[in-house]
Design brief:
The chain contains 7 helices and 31 strands. With 407 residues, the protein is mainly β.
């Protein structure tokens, strides 16, 4: 999630936790693209819990952009700067851990989709920034974000059960729960109940792979009320900045007639629902008419995924490297250190294992994760025994229980 506000000081909200991504090469989009149905412009394959990747042609080249409703305006990678013409203006952006200067350029035309079924040119100047942290997290070449300046005219369906995202001509659901989308400073928000704290206006962020992020003050208030139980921390890479955020379990969340118990939450600069929450539903976002349609999907009652190993990795120039290790975690107990080079994952060369697969393997309690590591030219093997986390609210419903509220 990137948030840009065009006034004297712009605000860049925190890209959501982990930015975990399952990606294939651009060429496979043409082969693997799900077939569009009547009423759809085009649809694309997605994976549960991974960012939504859309093929885009820009300046005569084919790249992939993240579909990001948490980004008020589309963003281009710094690699395009030399071909965007002169800088129109410089503005300050507040990131997760600092205030930095970014350059803005005239927006080039974008052709959206494999068939280039839609063209788009932003009405305002676009920001250009170094997205290498994103690419190090994904292991692939993400070159920009399609923000609300594009999405505001779109009807988007996200169906993780059947594994696709589609641009539609109109909503198709007649039985779903409907929420009003409130646009605040160019950002889409819906009302969500947080435990007994009441309903809050929460940003709908398709660019976040995390479940729920809560603004710092709100996170602390729920923590003081003992509605959140802390459960470690997360290493965050945001637009060139690194930071650490606390993680916890919130006793329950309410969305319309539904409740989700024992929800994974993270502290951040803004309150956000990301894909790990949204993809529990078959969801249609009708941005032109300000409506969001929710139907519980097959994943509605799955437990949230946790990093049971306590290890974060990145892929830089083909090398899979330990980015950080959580204190008192299984990884720390096994002697893993920041900077260790991962050679093999469960016996397979790390270069052949998608980053998303590594994230999945480290999130399976009750299993073992076997790593071959190199440090100072010495290779050693470690076995991480991934433990199940205790239930933070033993008197509540089972973890990730999702149920309709009785009338």
């Amino acid at each position: 999630m990137i948030h840009l506000f065009f006034h004297q000081r712009l605000s860049l909200q925190q890209l959501s936790c982990f930015l975990t991504v399952w990606l294939v090469s651009i060429a496979t989009f043409a082969e693997e693209r799900a077939t569009a149905t009547v009423g759809e412009f085009e649809r694309f394959p997605i994976e549960f819990g991974e960012v939504i990747r859309i093929p885009v042609e820009i300046l005569g080249e084919k790249h992939s952009f993240v579909l990001d409703s948490g980004c008020t305006d589309s963003v281009l990678d710094a690699a395009f700067r030399d071909r965007l013409g002169p800088v129109i203006k410089q503005n300050e952006l507040e990131t997760a851990s600092s205030i930095r200067q970014f350059a803005f350029y005239s927006a080039p035309e974008l052709k959206i989709g494999v068939r280039s079924s839609q063209t788009f040119r932003a009405a305002r100047p676009v920001a250009s920034m170094d997205l290498s942290n994103l690419r190090h997290t994904t292991g692939f070449q993400e070159m920009g974000f399609l923000g609300m300046d594009f999405l505001d005219s779109q009807v988007v369906r996200i169906n993780a059960d059947d594994g696709f995202v589609a641009f539609q001509k109109a909503p198709t659901s007649s039985t779903a729960h409907v929420e009003t989308i409130r646009m605040i400073r160019g950002s889409p928000r819906i009302m969500i109940g947080l435990s007994d704290f009441g309903f809050q206006s929460i940003l709908v962020d398709t660019g976040s792979t995390f479940c729920v992020t809560l603004e710092y003050k709100l996170f602390n208030e729920l923590l003081d009320r003992k509605r959140i139980v802390l459960r470690g921390s997360a290493d965050i890479a945001v637009a060139g900045d690194d930071s650490t955020s606390r993680l916890g379990v919130l006793d329950h969340i309410t969305l319309g007639p539904y409740q989700l118990r024992n929800v994974k939450v993270m502290e951040g600069q803004a309150s956000v629902v990301g894909l790990e929450f949204l993809q529990r539903f078959d969801i249609e976002l009708d941005f032109p008419n300000r409506r969001a349609y929710f139907r519980p999907g097959r994943r509605a009652q799955l437990p949230d995924r946790w990093n049971c190993a306590g290890i974060w990795v990145e892929r830089v120039e083909g090398r899979t490297i330990v980015r950080s290790v959580q204190p008192r975690s299984v990884a720390e107990k096994c002697g893993i250190l920041k900077g260790d080079l991962i050679l093999r994952v469960n016996g397979i060369s790390a270069t052949q294992v998608l980053m998303a697969k590594i994230r999945q393997l480290r999130s399976e309690p009750g299993t073992e994760l076997k790593l071959s590591l190199e440090r100072d030219s010495e290779v050693r093997d470690v076995v991480l025994k991934l433990e199940r986390q205790p239930d933070p609210f033993p008197n509540a419903l089972p973890a990730a229980t999702f149920r309709p509220i009785p009338d």
